[in-house]
Amino acid sequence: MYPFIRMTKELIKNARVDKLPVTGTHVSHHRCWPWDIDLWRELNNGRTLTLYDLGRIPLAGRTGLSRMLIKNRWGLTMAGASVRYRKRIRTFTRVEMRSRVVGWDDRFIYVEQSMWLGKDCANQIVYRSAVTDRNGIVATDRVIEALGYEGSRPEMPPWVQSWIDADAVRPWPPHE
Length: 176
Fold this sequence. Notes:
Elements: H1 4-14, E1 25-31, H2 45-62, H3 65-72, E2 75-85, E3 94-104, E4 109-117, E5 120-133, E6 136-137, H4 140-146, H5 158-168
Antiparallel strand pairs: 1-3, 2-5, 3-4, 4-5, 5-6
């Protein structure tokens, strides 16, 4: 089940915190509860993706994206993800989550998130997200302008660009 209560808590907690620039980092703290674990008593890999919502959605609120989506009657969708797991997160462990936009191209906004156990990164994900309207994907130039961002487009980190390039040659639909 989706963690609605936890999401509500995060939204209330972050409703009055300082705004962030589009490229700012949202830091939050979360606990791995018994209902988040798998048979090996560690954070389930699928639940990890759900918990990343607890950082990404407040990030959208703090940067003004959420209000801008509502104002323009736009939606937000995930169009891809690549995750790397390196450390186990056990039951009742508290993690620090860091969420930030790392860049964008003509169609997509790329969001990086990570979970930390002290100084050790437990896992990291990069998402390809798209803003949509009735006609499909909204160009990121329109989105960034609507956010009031006047800076230059950040240079895409090489590892993110490599993922974008590799994903572009991935066959779709997949072979049977």
